[in-house]
Every structure is written in structure tokens, then in C-alpha cells.
Design a protein that fits this description.
The structure is a single chain. By secondary structure, the protein is mainly alpha-helical. It has three helices and no strands. It folds into two domains: 59 residues; 41 residues. 88% of the residues lie in helices and 0% in strands.
Length: 100
């Protein structure tokens, strides 16, 4: 091979490596964007569930219904779940500066 052919091949190789690097960066960017979208969708689902549960807790009927429908053995589990919910709600209010 002559010197000119070697330079051409080296240049092609570098161009391909640059293209590969750009594609990797683009793939990483797309992956981050999809992860953000999934997180925001999950957050939206949890917020809707939290709003429903908060409305039930605010009215007091949610706790009453849970205790009335629960078998005697699992009533303590419902109480623990309700306490955990109240704790999480309070932490979220503190974190985001919302008052009760």
C-alpha cells in the first residue's frame, strides 16, 4: 500500500470512530430522557393515588371503612399502613414546604 492509501484509510477509521462516539452520546441522551419520562409518569400515578388516599383520610371515612372491612387479625396492619401514610404525608409536606 502506498502512503496516500494508508492516510485515506486512517481518515475513514477516525471518521467512523467519531460517528460511533456521537451515536453513543445520543443513545445516552435518549436513555436519560426516557428515564425522566418514566419517573414523571410514576410520580404522577403515585400523586393521583396519594390525593385519593388523602381525601379519604381527610374525610375520615377511609379509615373507618378499612377497619370495618378488615378481619380482626389484619386490623393492626391497616393501622400501621395508615400511620405510615400519615408519616409519609407529613414528610412530603415538610420537604415541599406545604402546610397541613
Amino acid at each position: 500500500m502506498n502512503e496516500q492509501e494508508q492516510r485515506r484509510q486512517a481518515r475513514e477509521l477516525l471518521e467512523l470512530e467519531i460517528k460511533l462516539a456521537r451515536l453513543k452520546v445520543q443513545a445516552a441522551r435518549i436513555k436519560r430522557q426516557q428515564a425522566r419520562q418514566n419517573d414523571s409518569r410514576r410520580r404522577g400515578e403515585w400523586l393521583a393515588l396519594a390525593e385519593t388516599a388523602a381525601a379519604a383520610a381527610a374525610d375520615g371515612w377511609g379509615r373507618k371503612a378499612a377497619f370495618a372491612a378488615a378481619p380482626r387479625k389484619s386490623r393492626w396492619l391497616w393501622l400501621a399502613a395508615w400511620a405510615a401514610w400519615q408519616f409519609a404525608r407529613q414528610r412530603a409536606a415538610e420537604r415541599y414546604g406545604k402546610s397541613r
